[in-house]
Specification:
The protein is α+β, with helices and mostly antiparallel strands. It is built from five helices and eight strands. The strands form two sheets. It has a five-stranded antiparallel β-sheet, with helices on both faces. The protein has a three-stranded antiparallel β-sheet with strand order 6-8-7.
Length: 197
């Protein structure tokens, strides 16, 4: 059995549901809100790519890389997706990423609660040693969001990946360590307007 399993996580604003093919059409609608697939430095699927994106994520889930659809409780709409990937079970260290949302829920607390639910699960139930985040050097929105969580920059992998447009990506690597989690948790709880632990 894999270290991580498909599990539903629920908070005040959102529910994280294990990604399946029923989420393809709602995710197509979500990604049209903002059209973030047009950003050259982001890896967000276009509506036409969504079925393949979800199919690949489901295949990865069988290897313990768990993807979620983000459902807004108030409207029941799917507003984005996120996942644990490149999960290093031996060292209890997953990466957390492939996160994108409909533009209408950006800066609403959805991302903060998503990260709170995922990090709480991985550190408190699964006893992770560290959680890693990676993003494009030029994706300042993503870098700011990761830094606001309380993650620390570990370094930059230069000329790390070839992007779909042929450009070469420098990847910025961040992490949250197990002993840092309580402070990160308090930060996320305060952003969500909840009492700290």
């Amino acid at each position: 059995m894999s270290w991580l399993e498909n599990i539903e996580l629920s908070g005040a604003l959102i529910t994280l549901e294990p990604l399946d093919m029923s989420h393809v059409e709602p995710l197509q609608a979500a990604v049209r809100d903002g059209e973030f697939w047009k950003l050259w430095f982001a890896r967000v699927p276009s509506p036409e790519q969504m079925a393949g994106y979800v199919t690949a994520a489901i295949a990865e889930a069988k290897k313990g890389n768990i993807a979620f659809a983000v459902r807004l409780k108030e409207t029941h709409k799917i507003v984005g997706t996120t996942r644990f990937y490149n999960v290093d079970e031996l060292n209890r260290r997953p990466m957390l990423g492939y996160t994108w949302y409909a533009k209408s829920v950006c800066r609403t607390g959805v991302n903060s609660e998503t990260k709170l639910l995922l990090l709480q699960h991985i550190f408190e139930q699964k006893e992770a040693i560290a959680v890693e985040f990676r993003t494009h050097f030029f994706n300042q929105t993503s870098r700011t969001s990761i830094e606001r969580l309380g993650a620390k920059q570990d370094g930059i992998l230069r000329s790390h990946q070839i992007m779909p447009d042929g450009s070469i990506r420098d990847t910025v690597v961040y992490s949250i360590l197990r002993h840092e989690w309580p402070a990160v948790k308090d930060n996320l709880l305060s952003k969500a307007g909840q009492p700290s632990s």
